[in-house]
Specification:
Oligomer: single chain
Order of helices and strands: HHHHHHHHHHEHEHEHEH
Shape: globular
Helix content: 40-55%
Strand order of the largest sheet: 1-2-4-3
Strand content: 5-15%
Structural class: alpha+beta
């Protein structure tokens, strides 16, 4: 195409414009033909994204690193919290089935108790909330299930040994087990109030120069972790930067922040951890679960008078490398998105951002 450029420069002005249009159309046609082949042929797809256009390789490497970490934590004596969370949630789902089967969970109950014991011993002096939840569900499971199944009985015996092996199994407060919700009263927030909150929340880029207390941030995070997550794994971490100098430095690493990154008071970088999954099929769960939590975080901030601005994070170099190095991310960790937040400037304007109509975003029974 170097020759074509040279030829184009030598053409008269009127012909030069037509030449550039032809060249753009030719390139677009080439790209369409290439992408059509890549989208329909596995070999072409592998060659294109493996050799000619390695843009997807960063995610592929992270997925592989996550699988490796998962296997190491599962088989080499590591503390696989994500496996424990997944399996305990699977037990919960068995406990809420209607009708409940007399025997369920036998294929993974021994594994669950084993990893529970490893983590319980590691946290013997100060149990985390997930250990309390795991312990309560396991206890409830063994009371409910038919223990005549040999694998279940072996797991029950192993569970009882954990308490005798220098590990206390405390019961604090109400048992964290499946329960019936109280639906006798309507929700405390009606649709009108919730819709008003949705309309109030807008992407704010102008903030007051005063800090948001960590108590407010933590309250918003407590709301964020109530968001649904596949098998309750919650494979994400909120990196909070409430130091304005650091927040602005990191925000400047993203695309689309020019003009306001140097005025942000606080920033959250939401990082997904692919070590939560043993299979490639689940590679998108970090983005889904983290985004659900991010939305709850933004709504919670709004209820307390703070505001936020979600910042897209495209998988693109050199931004990926800069952020990875700045945050010292591990091989399986992926940035999902950034969130700027703070007290909104009353004089600051926000885009109207007209939303798509119902006829554009939904259909029934199609």
């Amino acid at each position: 195409m170097g020759l074509a450029k040279s030829v184009g420069r030598k053409l008269p002005q009127g012909w030069r414009s037509k030449f550039h249009q032809w060249r753009s159309a030719y390139r677009a046609g080439q790209l369409r033909r290439r992408l059509k082949l890549v989208s329909q042929n596995n070999l072409a797809n592998g060659l294109y994204y493996g050799l000619l256009n390695p843009e997807l390789s960063r995610e592929a490497k992270a997925v592989a690193a996550g699988q490796l970490r998962y296997i190491q934590d599962r088989n080499d004596g590591g503390l696989n919290y994500y496996l424990l969370r997944r399996n305990v949630h699977r037990l919960e789902k068995g406990l809420v089935m209607r009708p409940r089967r007399a025997v369920f969970g036998r294929d993974f109950i021994e594994e669950t108790v084993t990893i529970f014991g490893q983590i319980a011993r590691a946290e013997a002096s100060a149990w985390s909330s997930e250990l309390h939840w795991s312990n309560d569900v396991l206890s409830h499971y063994f009371d409910a299930v038919d223990r005549s199944e040999p694998r279940i009985e072996r797991a029950r015996a192993l569970y009882e040994l954990i308490g005798k092996d220098h590990v206390a199994l405390p019961e604090l407060g109400d048992a964290q087990v499946p329960f019936a919700r109280d639906l006798s009263q309507p929700a405390s927030v009606d649709y009108g109030a919730f819709m008003a909150l949705c309309r109030r929340r807008r992407s704010v880029r102008w903030f007051e120069d005063r800090p948001v207390p960590r108590e407010v941030i933590d309250k918003a995070l407590l709301a964020a972790v109530q968001a649904p997550s596949a098998c309750n794994r919650q494979p994400f971490h909120f990196r909070i930067f409430d130091d304005s100098t650091q927040a602005r430095e990191i925000a400047a690493l993203a695309m689309g922040t020019k003009g306001f990154a140097d005025r942000l008071p606080h920033l959250a970088v939401i990082v997904g951890q692919l070590r939560a999954y043993p299979y490639e099929r689940d590679r998108h769960a970090i983005y889904i679960d983290a985004s659900l939590a991010a939305m709850s975080f933004m709504f919670a901030l709004e209820t307390m008078g703070a505001a936020s601005c979600s910042i897209n994070w495209p998988d693109h170099e050199p931004y990926e490398t800069r952020m990875r190095e700045r945050l010292n991310l591990e091989a399986d960790e992926r940035v999902v998105m950034l969130l700027a937040f703070g007290w909104p400037d009353p004089q600051g304007l926000v885009p109207f951002s007209s939303k798509r109509g119902l006829d554009r975003v939904r259909s029934y029974n199609q």
